[in-house]
Design brief:
It is built from 8 helices and no strands. It is an all-alpha fold. Helix 4 packs parallel to helix 7 and helix 6 packs antiparallel against helix 7. It has one domain.
């Protein structure tokens, strides 16, 4: 009887069978990166904004270069001629040269007739020029052709020979001589018809 009790109270050995492949508790993995679908949009937007800011700064610098040699007491024609002569220093760099001669003509048109030309694109300027302008149709067409040829060099990577650049230079001088003979605004604030059209 005592032997049976001893047999019943003795612990029964157990054996733990490990699953094939080793330990069944795996380590903690790091966080899974989920791609952001907006990331390319943010990159493109950031680059576009940076390019726009750079372009505006470049335009401001070119405009300052075009007017840096101007003397306050001179007439618009004299200031334009001074700016055009100064642009010859950039003849070896066609885009800069065409920017400076086109800016010189734009500033002249603004000072002479009150036309807001310097801060507008060529297309915007010509659209506002047509409805009420002190310039003749032929003069407007000549200005449009000149600005289009300058834009071709500035933005379309057109690299004309020096002779063509000098032709543009003399064209700008001729346009200044022609347009200065147009009727002058009486109030000194620009063409009255153009001013009333803008308001």
């Amino acid at each position: 009887m005592q032997q049976n009790r001893a047999t019943m109270s003795s612990p029964v050995p157990t054996q733990t069978v490990a699953p094939p492949g080793g330990d069944d508790i795996r380590g903690i993995k790091g966080p899974v990166k989920i791609p952001n679908p907006w990331l390319p949009f943010f990159w493109v937007t950031g680059i576009a904004i940076a390019l726009l800011i750079g372009w505006r700064l470049w335009r401001r610098k070119q405009k300052a270069m075009a007017t840096s040699a101007l003397v306050p007491g001179d007439s618009p024609q004299q200031r334009a001629r001074t700016a055009l002569n100064g642009s010859l220093k950039s003849l070896a760099d066609p885009p800069v040269f065409c920017t400076r001669i086109s800016d010189a003509l734009r500033v002249f048109l603004e000072e002479q007739f009150g036309l807001q030309a310097p801060d507008r694109t060529t297309e915007e300027f010509l659209q506002h020029l047509e409805p009420a302008s002190p310039l003749s149709t032929d003069q407007q067409q000549s200005i449009a052709t000149f600005l289009a040829r300058c834009d071709l060099v500035k933005f379309a990577r057109h690299h004309p020979p020096e002779s063509e650049l000098l032709t543009l230079f003399h064209t700008a001088l001729d346009l200044i001589d022609q347009t200065q003979r147009a009727p002058q605004p009486s109030n000194g604030t620009g063409n009255p018809a153009f001013q009333s059209n803008r308001t």
